Model the fold of this input.
Amino acid sequence: MVTKAMAKTANNKTSLKDQVTRFMRGSWAELKKVHWPTRKELIIYTGVVLVSVLIVAVLLWIFDSAFSFLLSKLILR
Done:
């Protein structure tokens, strides 16, 4: 049994080429809206990320070392 909705979608099918073309044009239009950082901004943002990762890594190392030390003292008494 074919419903009206099924018949309507069957008539509106587009070719794969048309779908790909529409997708690429839409993607290109969206990329034009993106705010791309300047070289200076990119360097600053990269530095901020690297410093943040370094700080978190050092904190994790400190806490891991402290917990390892405490657990070794508790287990070995």
Q: What stands out?
A: The chain has a mean pLDDT of 88. The longest helix spans residues 39-76. Helices lie at 4-11, 16-33, 39-76. The two ends are 79 Å apart (CA to CA).
